[in-house]
Design goal:
Elements lengths: L2 H10 L4 E6 L6 H14 L3 E4 L9 H11 L4 E3 L13 E7 L5 H17 L3 E9 L7 H6 L9 H13 L4 E5 L10 H10 L4 E4 L5 H10 L3 E4 L1 H5 L2 H12 L1
Parallel strand pairs: 1-2, 1-8, 2-3, 3-4, 4-5, 5-6, 6-7, 7-8
Helix pairs in contact: 2-3, 2-10, 6-7, 7-8, 8-10
């Protein structure tokens, strides 16, 4: 079963999934090996690999370490057309539908299309929605877009609905790495009720309690990166909370 079908199947069963976001620039080999071991024991569902910038060219190295030590599927979460590797299982083809930067809606995709077409990667069209977190984030700066205000549930709902109507297979709502304020349960609940495609939530989730609340509000997949970088023990706690939702 491919990645998208697996996410969809679990959504239909109301089974929540947990993803660990790995930024190749921020993790050392020794630490990554430890992270993968803990993630495997905790039965994490996916690894998302990528970041706003990759300056050390360690994308393939990270994928190689994860693939050798674990059967957890690896999915590219690209910040640019340079973040493509055949070592991953799939790629989220992100269209930043919360912004009005044409390069992030379709421009970069045109450049990457020939490479993706010739690859064996499973390509998953994804509507990416940035939600204001109370601080400037790397992804906001790099995408040159304005996030949706945190209290504007109606804008988030209409944006997600438009993304689904355009044929995007996933909706990914993100407060950004190191978010000061995570996405509210009210916004998650409103968007979840308005679309039928799987809903991914990330940014600012720093506890098992918050992850569980997001799942109960309607998130199908929880993504955690920055908090885990600081405390690997959170992997087990958050995975248990998500899988119990």
């Amino acid at each position: 079963m491919n990645i998208y079908d697996n996410i969809s199947k679990n959504k239909a069963k109301r089974k929540k999934q947990f993803t660990i976001l790995v930024d190749p620039d921020k993790v050392k080999v020794k630490d990554l090996e430890k992270l993968v071991k803990i993630a495997t024991q905790a039965k994490a569902d996916y690894f998302f690999i990528g970041g706003s910038l990759i300056t050390d060219n360690r994308l393939d190295e990270c994928l190689n370490i994860i693939n050798k030590q674990s059967k957890i599927p690896t999915v590219l979460f690209p910040g640019s057309v340079m973040q493509v590797s055949p070592q991953a299982k799939a790629i989220l083809l992100l269209s930043v539908i919360s912004g009005r930067n044409p390069e992030m809606l379709i421009g970069k995709h045109v450049i990457a299309a020939p490479l993706l077409k010739s690859s064996k990667l499973e390509i998953i069209p994804t509507g990416y929605m940035l939600i204001d977190s109370g601080r400037a984030t790397s992804v906001t700066y790099m995408s040159n877009t304005t996030p949706i205000p945190a209290d504007k549930n109606d804008i988030a709902v209409c944006t997600a609905m438009a993304g689904e109507m355009l044929g995007l297979k996933l909706i990914y709502m993100d407060a950004g790495s190191g978010a000061k304020q995570p996405i509210t349960e009210e916004m998650i609940r409103a968007v979840s009720k308005s679309v039928s495609v799987p809903l991914i939530i990330g940014g600012g989730i720093s506890s098992a309690e918050k992850a569980l609340k997001n799942c109960k509000a309607g998130a199908d997949v929880i993504v955690v990166g920055n908090a885990i970088e600081k405390d690997y023990s959170l992997i087990t706690e958050i995975a248990s909370a998500v899988h119990s939702a």
